[in-house]
Structures are given as C-alpha cells and as structure tokens.
Amino acid sequence: MRNITAQAASAAAVAAGSDVAVEVRGVCKMYNEVEALRGIDLDFPAGKLTTLLGPSGCGKTTLLKIIAGLIPATSGEIRVNGQTVTGPGPERAFVFQDFALMPWATVMRNVAFGLELKGMGKDERQSIARKYIAEVGLSGFESKYPHELSGGMRQRVGLARAFAVNADVLLLDEPFSAVDEQNRRKFQEDLLELVEKEKKTFIFVTHSIEEAVYCSDRIVILSRRPGRIAQIIEPEIDRTASPDAIRRDQGYLDTVEEIWQGLKRYVD
Amino acid sequence: MSFPVQANGSPRAVPNSEASFFWRKLSEHRTALWRLASIGLFFLVWEIAGRIPISFAFPTFLETLRAFVTMTLDGSFVAAYAETLQPLVIGIAISAVIGIGLGIVMGLSRFAEWLVAPVFIVLQAAPMAALIPLITFVYGIGLVSKTLAVIMLALPVIVLNGYKAVRNANPSLVAMCYSFQGNLWQRITKIIIPDASPVIFAGLRLGLAAGFIGVILAELLITPTGIGDLITYHRSVANYAEMYAAVVSIILVSTLTLAALEAFELRVLRPEKRKS
Questions:
Q1: Boundaries of each ABC transporter domain copy (chain A) (predicted)?
Q2: pLDDT reported for residue B3
C-alpha cells in the first residue's frame, strides 16, 4: 500500500507518470451558493481503475459527471487524451447508478443503443452488442426486457452498453449501489476480470470502502463539502490471488481500516 | 412437526382431480369472468328497474336489446354512424396531430409552455357545451362546426397530457442519451417520446372519450344528424327502447374504440408491457 497524504497529494496526483488518460485541472463547481468542489487537480492513469471515494455529498458523483461532460464545471478544465472536454464524447462512456435502461427496449437494443445513436447498421451493431452481452455473462437474455432481469443483471446490461461503444475511459457512477450484496460481490469479481481484459481506463465512484480497496489500483479520497482531495492511496494488492484470498489478505484489511480511520471524522 | 398442515380437514386438502381441473380452467379466465359478471349484474338491475317501472320512459333491458338488434339489422345504425363518425374522425385526427405536437413542443420549451399552456388550462376548465352555440353562430350548422366541437373537447386534454408526459420524461434516460452523444432529434424520438408514450396515450384515450361527448353534444345541440338524430327522433316519438338502444350503441362504439387504442399502444409502443 502506498499512502500519499493530503499535503503531497496534489503533487503526486499530477506527477502520476507517463500514461495519463484523464487530467483534471483546477476544477471547481458551485451549485448556486453551495460550493461542491474546490480546486481539484487530478490525473487518472491510463489502463487503471481509479476510485473516487468519500463521504456522501462530497461531490464525487459531481466530479465524475463533469469528467463525463454531463454537467459543466464552474471553473477549471478536463482533458481526456489531451483534448479539452466540452461535453460527452466518444472516448468516454458512462455507467449509471440507476442503470438508465430503456424499459421498452430489449437487452439487445439497450446494449446496442450507443451504436444505434452513432448511426451504425443493425446487423453490425447487434453483432458487437452480442459479443459484450456474452462478456458480461448475459448470453441468452438478449431478447429479455429490463424488468425481467434482477438488479445485478440490469447493471451488467449498463456495463455492456458502455463497453460496446469502445470508449477509452469508462465512468462508473456507484454502479453497484442498487445491486444486492451477494450479486455485488460476484459483479466486482467479474468487473476485475473485465478491467484486466479490456485494458481501459476506469473511473469508479463508490461510497463502499471495501469495494474501493478490492477493485482499485488507486483510490482518491475526497473530503466533505466543499470536496477536495484528502488522500490518495494505492492499495497495491496482488490481483493474481483468488477473490477470496484477497478479501482475507492482511494488506487489504489494513488498507480498509486505514481509509476508515481517515474518513471517520467526516461522518457525523 | 412434519405432518402436512392441510390434512386437518380443510376443504382444499385433497382436491378432487376433476373439480380441480374445472377450477383451474376457471381461474385462468377469472378476470374476464368477473367483468362479464359485473356487466350481467348491471343488465339484471336494469331489467328489474325497467319492469318496476321506475319511469314510463325507461325501457327494460330486453326491450332495448330487441330495439338494438332491429336497428342494427335494418341499417339505421350504419347510416347514423356514417354521419356521426365523420366529424369525430376528422376532429380526433386533427386534435391528435396538433395536440401531441404542441404537447411535445411545450414539454421541451419553457417559452412555448408559458405561451400556450394557460390557454389550454382555461379551455379544459371551461364548460364546452356552453360554447357550442357560439361555434354555430360563426361556422353555421355544417361539418365544420361539429368537427370544431370535437376538437374543442378533445384537444386540451391531449395537449396537457402530452406536455406533462414530455416534461416528466425520465431525466436519467435523457442524460444517458446525451452521454452517448445522441443529438436533440434522437433524444426526442428515441427517448422522450417512447418514455412519454403511456401518458400521451392516456391523453389520447381521454381526448377520444371527450371527442365522443363533443360529437354527440354537437348532434344534439347544433343539428340532429347521425346518432344524435336517432336519439332526438326516437325521444320525440316516444320510442324509448330505440332511443336507449342508440345511447347504448354510442357507449359501445366509444368503449370498443378506446379498447382498440389501448391494444394498439401496447402492441406498437410498449412491447414490454404485453409480456407481464
């Protein structure tokens, strides 16, 4: 585990190294009079899974949506692969907390929807969608409707949709918060496999410390409102071990405890 | 504690296989049966009320049924509906197109909402029957007046439902479409309209029901033609059974049309609702 304290955080956050997928520079966000984010400087290394963790209301989802281009920053800028973000773009794909699946469309159409919007032909987009439906483990459910699926399966559809557009950066907004505990664990394990396989940059928002430590290469802890970077932690857990071994690993447990000690003061 | 709970004399304990088959068949169609029973009960009460009789102008169910069959067979219904349905179909078609169009525009644009919504909120609250003589005054007693009467009743509810449906389209789905770089047109046609369609269709159903009221009002108040003429004529010559048959026929036509619209909606727009 590598712990980068608050003082050194901004320096370390920026000097992250060679391959940076997403750069956040001086981002502030005001909601009318409420200051949600203050002076965020952060680099997201390419091909890694970075988690934004923090107490509720710390602006982590806001930051993710600013990166996605769904909401504008009050000041500062976001660069993805060196390009300044002005809105949503094809190099980013978003996975929604509430799944955001069209209830009137089948799994197939939902997964292929990003491609449908790009104007891709039906056969082509369906063959791509079929591949990712299989990848998230939903083969055979192509013609089901979202209400026929469990919460975990619905979020797998959301994930497959994000994969299908072949973006470099995947933005996941508390993807498991509406999924029950047992499905969540299985899903986390599957997600790690997909991270390994897809070689994409993942930015992940969660409020679960265990989830953050279990999944992430790097954890960015935000302070309470106004959100600022409090700490950056790199768990450095051996991911080749089995999921169950990881969950019993001393390094894993220590990291969880350490983050909890740091976050405790923000919780009433 | 492992002996079966049903063993202690409950009538459901050991069902006769033949009876259980019968009950299973029955419960498959339970909803339909209850509906039939409800209608049957209503006809029974009608028959009894007609036989008491509660009024000399109130025919029994069976008399009305006989009149209904006679009028169906002698073609007077066919002739009447050929006339009545004209302003209704034209009026509903115009109301649907303008209403859904306006509703969508109002749902998407605050400016259009401020400009148009108050007019329709007032129109919806206004007693339209009182305005029908005014239409006659301006447009005479022809097809135009009757079509206008239909539109005046049907349009406000279609517009207001469309506008509310679009305004309340699931923001998460709209954000999803935006995040996958859907343009404004795609956002409207692929997300907002399908998401709003149940409420838009509820508005269409209410509008159609209001349109039936409008066309009958027009035929009773402007000039007696079509089904309105049948009602007026049979009342004036005291053929109460025939008059009631005409009233029943319009209720029947209206109900069947609404059911057809609902079936169309489920079939075309919301395939997922059909399965459950």
A1: 22-249
A2: 43
Tell me which H or E stretch contains A84.
Answer: strand A83-84
Q: Is the pTM of this model over 0.95?
A: no
**What pLDDT, on a 0 to 100 scale, did the predictor assign at position B191?**
92
Scanning B167-196 for CB atoms below 8 A from A yields 170, 172-173, 175-182, 186, 190-191, 194-195
pLDDT of B173 > 90? The answer is yes
Residues listed for chain B: 276
Return the CATH class of domain A2-91+167-266. Answer: alpha beta
Given pLDDT bands bounded at 50, 70 and 90, which one contains residue B267? confident
Across the interface, of A69, A114, A145, the residue whose CB is closest to B275 is A145
Question: In the predicted model, is pLDDT for residue A121 greater than 80?
Answer: yes
Here the tokens at position A146 are 């979202």
With 0-12 / 13-18 / 19 or more C-beta atoms within 10 angstroms meaning exposed / middle / buried, residue A238 is exposed
Closest residue to A100, CB basis, from B176, B186, B190: B176
| A141: contact with B, CB 8 A cutoff | no
- pLDDT tens-digit series, residues A153-185: 898 899 899 999 988 899 999 888 877 887 788
Mutate to test the interface with B, among A85, A94, A102, A154 (most CBs of B within 10 A): A102
Which residues on chain A are in Cβ contact (under 8 Å) with B172? 96, 98, 100
SS3 A25: strand
Q: Do B173 and A88 touch (CB under 8 A)?
A: no
Write B256-264 long-range contacts (CB < 8 A, 24+).
B257/B208, B257/B212, B258/B205, B258/B208, B258/B209, B261/B201, B261/B204, B261/B205, B261/B208, B262/B201, B262/B205
pLDDT digits (tens, 9 = 90+) for B180-206: 998 999 999 999 988 998 888 889 999
Tell me the ipTM for this assembly: 0.86
